Amino acid sequence: MLWPPSDRRSTVDSTADAQLHEEEAGLLASLRAGDEKVFLSLVRRHQTSMIRVALLYVPTKAVAEEVVQEAWVGVLQGLEKFEGRSSLKSWIFRILTNCAMSRGGREARSKPFSALAEEPGEPLVDPSRFRGPESPHWEGHWAAPPQRWTDDQLAAHQTAQIARRAIEELPRGQRDVITLRDVEGWSSDETCEALGLTEANQRVLLHRARAKVRAVLEQQLKAEKR
Amino acid sequence: MTRTAPIELTCVELVALVTEYLEEALTPAERERFEHHLVYCVGCIEYLQQIRDAMKLAGAAKPAEVLTQEAEDKLLSMFRGLKK
Fold this sequence. Notes:
The complex is a heterodimer of chains A (226) and B (84).
Chain A: H1 18-32, H2 36-54, H3 61-78, H4 88-114, H5 151-155, H6 157-168, H7 172-183, H8 188-195, H9 199-225
Helix pairs in contact in A: 2-3, 2-4, 3-4, 4-8, 6-9, 7-8, 7-9
Chain B: H1 11-22, H2 28-40, H3 42-60, H4 69-83
Helix pairs in contact in B: 1-3
């Protein structure tokens, strides 16, 4: 990736952003004028996500914090040249992922290429959950369908923890994609750009990741009920 | 085996397409087959619901990382330095 990253706006996020843009223009002007309050609020607004995203590339919170600081240096240095063609947020995170990747070393940089090589198609739902050829009219249909989780189960703090642990244990590419998409709530465009993935590859990783997190939840919530 | 169009999806096939469905990456014809299956298959309705639940739970599972005061102070003094 080139340094500094360009602020080319991808075609998809041009919708309904006019207001956001005005707010950002105001933010930018304040930052350029050296408004500390605005800078601090921006730092605080993004710090949680920035640390978590940095942690996808570097091993410890301490290093992640350094990466976040480095990223802000890059942001401040690029501020004059930033043309607002991408959103401020995606520009900031592009700088962050560049910093995190160069800090994370070779392993982090080579990740997009190895992302799909990991684990060749083991089934995402246990094949014994479906009917086999012994029932010709219903082959490939549920034999043991999923059972709805209760509202209490879904609201329990412990259930979210199960999901979190399941995500942490995913192979790297899957973990990165589900972290950006479902934990951080990024769009698929933003995610593809940050991780250097094609739309299709991103979808494959997301598919595997979500299916596995679901399977872990199902198993553990069932065990809990007994 | 002879079948009349549109060929109905099996549950195995629906499960494999669930992310493309949620990402709106299916063609209109595929989407129609997908939704048609959901009309009568309770198991697949539940599967889709659980995938949506898992997505929500992932969003609820954020560890709340914050910068240390020290890191924040460093950033602020850097910001001040840049103004000069």
